[in-house]
Every structure is written in structure tokens, then in C-alpha cells.
Amino acid sequence: MKEGLVIKSTGSWYTVKTNDGEVHNCRIKGRFRMEGIRTTNPISVGDIVEFNQEKDANVIVKINDRKNYIIRKSTNLSKSSQIIAANIDHAFLIVTVNYPLTTSTFIDRFLAAAEAYGIPVNLVFNKIDRYKNGDLTQLNELKDIYQSIGYKCFEVSARTGLNIDLLKDEMKNKINLLSGHSGVGKSTLINLIQPGLELKTGEISESHASGKHTTTFSEMFELDFGGYIIDTPGIRGFGTYDMKKEEMFHFFPEIFKISEKCQFHNCTHMHEPKCAVKRAVETGEIAESRYDSYWGMMSEDEELKYR
Known about the structure:
about 300 residues, Rossmann fold, Ribonucleotide Reductase Protein R1, domain 1, 6-stranded mixed sheet, globular, cytoplasm, rRNA-binding, EC 3.6.1.-
């Protein structure tokens, strides 16, 4: 029996790296597909697994307990989910206010999912070398909102290399996840952070102002300066998965903090009188965009929440 870290997942085969540096291609037993979370990928990049040599293939026989994972609704199976990565030390959400647009709704859904599973997140605003006056205004508004909550924000340019060293310092000796829409520059950033990988990069579709998928599966790369970086397929929409509505406000730190002042201990912060959260939105203490995201996640139907 050998133990190793899953560094690549293609859906049917998994690349596993053992502590001694050996790399093995492995498959899984079918029964894993029926255990635990209802998911399209029972094993993900970042998992620690145990495997045996069976006949002509290495077979994964055990998945060790995860300290966390980040999960989203599967795009093609309505009642299934997809685990993006597991055992993450730090997540970096790559955001662009243009080329293509990343909406605050998408940002807030990602942040809520990360909060739910105890994953620290930094926001990385990429392509700032292309921003015009209106873009810079929007950038500063978003930074003000998220920094006031406690999320660290970086302004970077994959084209010029601006502030890439700051990202490296933040990633050192950690397992780091990079996520975001297609076209925001994840692969280009990774190529700068770890030279020599030569990941394929794509251009923005001019007709749809959105990115073209260049990464089709998750893969983990070792960093020369210590740690790992996980590249993930671009996400068009990010739906929260398996979050109880009565706990939703826990995943919005500023709402959770203010909620202690509400009149009712079971306040939903939507319809109740003398709600401290609603009052904080009115006074500007809580950003209206954040409250709108919370309201949307609380009020949407199950079938709509992933669109």
C-alpha cells in the first residue's frame, strides 16, 4: 500500500505523487462513485489517497479525510456537484472588472462557499494595465468593499508582471487554489509565478466578451519557492452547494458580526422588524451589493441557485 497526493485529475485517471517523489497513474474502484457526497468526481486534486498495484494498474482504495474542499454545482447533472479541489491552504479568486467582467454576485458566491469550508481567500484584480477611468473607479469601489470586510486584495498585471512577487510571498509553502472566470488570466499568472510550465493561454472572445476555456481539468504544480498551485477550469457560474439557509449569514462576515444586534436571535435579515443588518445596509455600514448577494442566495429557488 502506498500513499500520495493527487496532483492531476482527468475524470477517469488520477496522477498521484508519493512522498518520495514518485509519480503514479491511478484509477479508482467503482464503489467510490457511490460514497459520501453526490459528486461527479469522488477524488479531486489535493486529496491524499492510498493505492495498491493490481494486475496492470494502480488502484486507489482509500481517500483520507479532507480538512476542507471547495465544491460547486455540476454544470450538466442537476443533482450532482463537482469538487474543485481539496485540502486547500489558501484560495485566490482572480477578478477582472472588464475583459471579461466579473460580477460582485459571482465574487460573493465564491467567498461564501470558501467561508463555509474554512478556506482563506484573497482577491486578485488582474489586467489593471488595461483599465480605463471607469474601470479604475469600479476597481477602487470593489477593493473598498472587500478590504473593509477583511479580504486582502492585490492589483496585478499578468501582461507586465506587476506585483507578481507579492503573490509569490503570499503563496510560499502553501497549497494554493486559483479560480475565476475563463479569460481572467489564471494560466498566464501561473506561468509567471512558476516559469517553465508553459500552460496554454487563451484570448477573450470579442463577440461574447468572455473567456475561452483553456484548462479542461484541475492540476497541481509544485512551486520552486515552496508549496503548490492548483489550476482549475474557468467557471462561468458558481453555485453554492448544500448550504442551509439558516446558516447563510454566517458566511458573510460583516453580516454575521452585525447580526448580534438584531432583536430576534433567529432573524433572517430579510423581513423582520428592527433588524440591525438591514439598518446597517441603509447606513452604508454593509455594502448594498453584498446584501443583494445574500438576499439572492436566501430567496432563490433550488433550481435557480446555480445559474
